[in-house]
TrEMBL record:
This is Beta-lactamase hydrolase-like protein phosphatase-like domain-containing protein. One of its GO terms (molecular function) is hydrolase activity. It comes from the Bacteria. InterPro entries: BLH_phosphatase-like (IPR005939), Prot-tyrosine_phosphatase-like (IPR029021). It holds the Pfam family BLH_phosphatase. Residues 20-102 form the Beta-lactamase hydrolase-like protein phosphatase-like domain. The lineage of its organism: Bacteria, Pseudomonadati, Pseudomonadota, Alphaproteobacteria, Sphingomonadales.
Length: 150
């Protein structure tokens, strides 16, 4: 199957890891067709773009689910620790999403740098395909820049 580019803010990080923004019901069969075994959601469940009953919809497709609600204005170390535990405990391939792929790209930037030891330029290139909190005008961008150490 080709990459499901119709999924909002779709990005493939490696052979076993994909990311995106908010999922829609029609996106889930595409993830299943890719062989995704686990979905990690960093968005708040009450966001207007959040997919209702996401866990149940994924379970019906045989896909495991972890929900780590990260308030956009206040990411913290407990969120990162939960993300790391979910990612490292997941049977892959894994798909990680939020609403715009901003939380996810920031979390992976930290994971790539701090855990995997990825070179800064490579980690930054993956991050900035979605956004760069160090240069973005969003009111929470400075919080995110501090959170990822940029």
């Amino acid at each position: 199957m080709s990459e499901p580019d119709m999924i909002a803010a779709w990005q493939r990080l490696d052979a076993a890891t994909t990311t995106s923004g908010a999922l829609r019901p029609d996106d889930l069969p595409a993830l299943a067709a890719l062989g995704v075994c686990h979905v990690i959601n960093l968005a708040l469940a009450d966001h207007p773009q959040a997919l209702p009953d996401e866990a149940e919809r994924l379970a019906a497709l045989g896909i495991a689910y972890s929900h780590i609600p990260v308030p956009f204005e206040a990411p913290d170390e407990t969120h990162f620790a939960a993300f790391r535990a979910a990612l490292e405990g997941a049977r892959g391939p894994v798909h990680v999403h939020c609403i715009l792929n901003w939380r996810v790209s920031a979390f992976f930037y930290r994971y790539h740098r701090e855990v995997l030891g990825m070179a800064e330029d490579r980690a930054a290139a993956l991050l900035t395909r979605q956004w760069d909190p160090g240069t973005h005008a969003h009111p929470a961008a400075a919080t995110w820049a501090r959170f990822i150490g940029r």
